[in-house]
């Protein structure tokens, strides 16, 4: 065992890379990766007065702690074992969602009346959050690539009552052909990834990790990111996020979007600890602009790991 | 669709003209915002399932109970907390109501789908997938 992670799961190349990335903090990362994440929920202000629901949950013995970066997010310090099997969950009054997963919609900050695309939307945690932030106004297109993923998405949109959402089924890499060029005011690409940030939920990501698999998924991510950028209107903003810590899947993808003319903006979030993105990694020189991206390590806020970049398409 | 809108207006006193309604199959009706209805894209589905035709009127979904219930002036039944918890486990509830037919179910500010009152009990029309497992 290494800090609670089963023996043999951490590959030598993984340790070499992450020791290089984090130095002495590598062991802290491992110790957080070995812990189960703190359960958290996102209240749905479109269905219920959040204060009423918080009071009701506390009356039932729940202990809730507000998540600083999203006003309707709460960590459940004490509550039922199955958060998905309560009256309130079944009625769509809250969504069980990891605290860090609430960050990309907050950074995108969609407003009522905008046209927004969530390109890789399933299972719908961020879609339904975006819809609520839009107050069910405007248009939110939620896309995913396979019918089984779309089924999960539809079920969650129904439960949360997101009446401004259109579900589409298409390969995100062909988004410009499917939706048309420069169609959306805002685009979220929460890209499929190697999920290293989610090791706290399951060891699977560590078992699957290899430099080859990272390279393969980074190519897919770049194709998706380029397509997402093309469907963004001039002057529009896009969030690129992943739940991994791999520079090739994060800074490398964003660096390639900058080559297309995208401009990075620095997100402003209260109460969140994050590190600037990497300026260089291995043979790549990404440049100082990448410091505007957010690396969120599990040990920073006691969440899963995340990477978030906010990009604008110039007028 | 006009039959459904007329039924909603007459039975609950609610006007849904601010939304778009679309048929989904023979019996189901979905609801979405007008903007989402007008946005041109090849979709799988839009908005949320609102209601389904039944011999006694329409079964109103959980989401439909919110959308209609907030403006409803009649045929809404308020449950006690104990009744609400049983309702959410899928049970029928013995109540006395003014007339037979479909009622929206409410606990405090929360709507919890619909039921059919047969003169004795409010029959639970909430799908099993939306109830709480014991």
Tags for this model:
heterodimer, A: 315 residues, alpha/beta, 9-stranded mixed β-sheet, 4-stranded antiparallel β-sheet, 15 strands, 33% helix, B: 134 residues, alpha+beta, Nuclear Transport Factor 2, Chain: A, 5-stranded mixed β-sheet, 4 helices, 10 strands, globular
Sketch the topology of chain B as an H/E string, one letter per element: HEEHEEEHEHEEEE
Helical proportion of chain A, percent range: 25-40%
* Rg calculated over all Cα atoms of chain B: 15 Å
Mean pLDDT of chain A, to the nearest integer, reads 95
Instruction: Report the count of strand segments of chain A.
Output: 15
Assembly status: heterodimer
User: End-to-end distance of chain A, in Å?
Assistant: 54 Å
User: What gap, in angstroms, lies between the N and C termini of chain B?
Assistant: 38 Å
- The percentage of residues in β strands of chain B lies in 35-45%
Give the low-pLDDT segments of chain B: none
Mean pLDDT level of chain B: 96
Major β-sheet annotation of chain A: 9 strands, mixed
Please tell me the CATH architecture of chain B by its name: Roll
Most extensive chain interface and residues per partner: A-B, 37 and 33 residues
Query: Which descriptor suits the 3D outline of chain B?
Result: globular
Physical arrangement of strands within the biggest beta sheet of chain B? 6-8-9-10-7
Overview of the molecule:
- Chain A is of the alpha/beta class.
- Chain A has twelve helices and 15 strands.
- In chain A, helix 7 links the parallel strand 6 and strand 7 (165-169).
- In chain B, the strands form two sheets. Chain B has a five-stranded mixed beta sheet.
- The mean pLDDT of chain B is 96.
- Chain B has four helices and ten strands.
- The longest helix of chain B has 11 residues, at 2-12.
- Chain B has helices spanning 2-12, 34-38, 62-69, 81-87; strands at 20-24, 28-32, 45-46, 48-54, 57-60, 76-78, 93-94, 101-107, 110-117, 121-124.
- Chain B has 134 residues and is of the alpha+beta class.
- In chain B, 23% of the residues lie in helices and 35% in strands.
- The A-B interface holds A 47-49, 52, 56, 85-88, 90-93, 113, 115, 136-141, 150, 154, 157-159, 161-169, 178-179 and B 19, 31-33, 35-36, 39, 41-49, 61-63, 66-67, 84-85, 88, 108-112, 130-133.
């Amino acid at each position: 065992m290494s800090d609670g992670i089963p023996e043999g799961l951490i590959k030598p190349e993984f340790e070499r890379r992450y020791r290089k990335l984090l130095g002495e903090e590598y062991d802290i990362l491992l110790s957080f990766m070995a812990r189960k994440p703190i359960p958290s929920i996102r209240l749905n202000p479109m269905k219920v007065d959040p204060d009423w629901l918080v009071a009701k949950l506390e009356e039932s013995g729940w202990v809730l702690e507000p998540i600083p970066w999203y006003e309707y997010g709460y960590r459940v310090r004490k509550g039922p074992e199955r958060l998905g099997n309560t009256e309130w969950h079944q009625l769509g009054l809250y969504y069980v969602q990891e605290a860090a997963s609430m960050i990309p919609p907050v950074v995108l900050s969609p407003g009522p009346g905008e046209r927004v695309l969530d390109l890789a939307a399933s299972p719908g945690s961020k879609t339904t959050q975006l819809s609520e932030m839009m107050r069910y106004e405007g248009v939110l297109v939620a896309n995913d690539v396979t019918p089984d993923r779309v089924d999960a998405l539809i079920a969650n949109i129904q439960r949360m009552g997101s009446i401004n959402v259109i579900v589409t089924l298409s390969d995100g890499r062909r988004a410009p052909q499917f939706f048309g060029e420069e169609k959306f005011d805002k685009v979220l690409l929460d890209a499929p990834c190697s999920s290293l940030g989610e090791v706290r939920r399951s060891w699977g990501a560590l078992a699957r990790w290899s430099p080859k698999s990272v390279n393969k998924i980074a190519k897919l991510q770049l194709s998706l990111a380029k397509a997402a950028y093309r469907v963004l209107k001039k002057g529009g903003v896009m969030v690129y996020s992943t739940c991994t810590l791999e520079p090739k899947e994060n800074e490398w993808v964003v660096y390639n979007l900058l080559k297309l003319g995208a401009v990075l903006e620095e997100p402003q979030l209260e109460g969140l600890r994050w590190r600037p993105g990497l300026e260089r990694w291995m043979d790549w020189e990404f440049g100082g602009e990448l410091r505007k991206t957010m690396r969120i390590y599990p040990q920073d806020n006691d969440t899963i790991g995340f990477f978030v970049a906010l990009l604008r398409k110039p007028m | 669709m006009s039959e459904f809108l007329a039924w909603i207006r007459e039975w609950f006193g609610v006007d849904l003209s601010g939304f778009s309604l679309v048929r989904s199959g023979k019996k189901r009706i979905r609801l979405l915002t007008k903007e989402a209805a007008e946005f041109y894209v090849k979709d799988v589905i839009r908005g949320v399932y609102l209601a389904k035709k039944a011999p006694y009127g329409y079964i109103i979904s959980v989401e439909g109970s919110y959308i209609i219930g907030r403006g409803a002036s009649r045929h809404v039944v308020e449950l006690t907390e104990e009744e609400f918890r049983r309702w959410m486990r899928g049970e029928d509830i013995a109540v006395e109501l003014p007339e037979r037919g479909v009622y929206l179910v409410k606990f405090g500010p929360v709507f919890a789908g619909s039921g059919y009152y047969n003169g004795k009990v409010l029959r639970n029309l909430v799908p099993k997938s939306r109830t709480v497992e014991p």
